[in-house]
Amino acid sequence: MKWKEPTFGATPMLRALTTANAHRKAKAFDLAAEQKKQKLNYPDWAQTWLRKYKEDWYIAQANGDEVGMRKAQKLAEGLRSKLREMATFPKWAQEEMKKETVRWMTAEASGDIRGKLAAEKAGRAIREKLGLIDTTENTSSEVSVTNESKETAKPNVKTPAGKWIPAEFQYNGSSEAEKTFKRRSLNFTKMKWNQEKLHGLWEATKKIQETYDIQIDPRFLLAIIIQEGTGSFNTSSTNRAADGEHGAETNYARDLMKANSLVFGKILGYIYYGQEFRQAVVKNNKLSGITGKGDVFQYCNWFTPILRMKSKRVECGIYASDNRWGENVRKIYNTFSGNEASNYEQYLLSLDKSVTQKIAASEGIKLPDFKFKPTQNGNDSRKNDTNEWSIVGER
Fold first, then answer.
1. How many beta carbons lie within 10 A of that of residue 349, not counting itself?
2. 217, exposed or middle or buried, with CB in 10 Å at 0-12, 13-18, 19+?
3. What confidence tens digit (pLDDT) does each residue in 121-143 have?
């Protein structure tokens, strides 16, 4: 008989001690201090669940389970986001949403997928009902659970978060959006598109959602592909375009990875710095080239903060020097999504700044302060000076 090296896994006694220690630490956790920090009120029912997620996090930490730690952290942050959303509801809707939130969390804890879906459906119904009712009257007596002003309060998102990674486009599909993408992609002379590339794009956005719980709409990336006009996201630093900027990347996997990294880094920056950016845009609407309210498409276009996950730093950069690139991408995205640009914007605005803070902290990235100001640096698609303005970030 061959000798087998003994292994020493966690014994029942060790597991019990780990659980007991995690329970003690979660019970002792200062929720009052956290509420003050978060500028948020935790009702008793929410405190119970937050302590549970704290306990789950401590257990996962003791076991070196990073996936478990991240899951517990996401569940806790999801509950905080729900509390912020509920704060904007009238009392009757708060009670209904509380029931569905507890129902969802209970189903999630037990692995009841049907229960989660039913709770999500009921939550959507409440939001839809609120969209038909004027809730602006008689709200002064409601107890506010945040100190946010009307300018910074998170809007109601009537569309479910899951909508932003829709069913995968079919290259030979029959919908108008699919047929439009195929027709326009046939103009690409070298970087041909097919179903395999579409599948890779959808899977890449799903991976980001699974890891960070933030959704990049793949149709946003398809809009960039059409706008760039080469069949590539134009991420190559060695194959330069005629205007000297990054050119077509022939390796699709590398191209997609770099595009996802850039757009995701921009979106993280928008979640954290977006309020200041939007204020600067609105304040300077009188300047040629600066229009609208400062949405994510403009932010991605212009010289604004990007969280660089690989280099662990925050720096400012553009996607394209064409001052109208963001406007064009928005138009194409609306074509592919059925005019959902404003709703996708609302989804991103519903994500609290702490989402970026936690991701940055987990990646060892410091978030410096930036100021946003108008700069006369506009170019057209051929990089000719247009004398237009844009908003840029400066440290």
1. 20
2. buried
3. 888 888 777 753 333 333 332 22
In the chain, alpha helices (H): 12-28, 31-38, 44-62, 66-86, 91-110, 113-130, 176-185, 195-212, 218-228, 252-283, 296-301, 325-337, 341-349, 353-363
Provide the pLDDT for residue 12: 56
Place of tokens 């569940």: 75
pLDDT at 290: 96
Q: What is the dihedral of CA 266, 268, 271, 272, to 10 degrees?
A: -100
- Residue 349 CB contacts under 8 Å (≥ 6 apart), including other chains: 154, 155, 274
**Spatial distance between the Cα atoms of 214 and 192, rounded to a whole number of angstroms:** 29
Beta bridge partners of 390: 375
Distance CA(40)–CA(151), nearest Å, equals 17
| Amino acid, single-letter form, for residue 236 | S
**Rounded to an integer, what distance in angstroms lies between the CA atom of residue 71 and that of residue 388?**
45
Contact indicator for 145, 40 with CB cutoff of 8 Å = yes
Strand partners, 136: none
DSSP helix/strand/coil, 379: strand
Name the strand (E) or helix (H) holding 159. none
What is the DSSP-derived secondary structure letter of residue 303? S
Residue 289 contacts by C-beta under 8 Å, 6 or more apart in sequence?
323, 378, 386, 388, 389, 390
Task: Reduce the secondary structure of 75-112 to three states and give it as a string.
Answer: HHHHHHHHHHHHCCCCHHHHHHHHHHHHHHHHHHHHCC
Q: Rounded to two decimals, what is the model's pTM?
A: 0.60
pLDDT in tens, 375-390: 999 888 777 888 999 9
Quote the pLDDT of residue 246: 58
CA–CA separation, 115 and 174 (whole Å): 33
Q: What is the CA radius of gyration of the chain?
A: 23
Q: Are 290 and 390 in contact (CB under 8 A)?
A: yes
CA angle 69, 361, 224 (to 5 degrees): 100
Q: Decide if 220 contacts 177 (C-beta within 8 A).
A: no
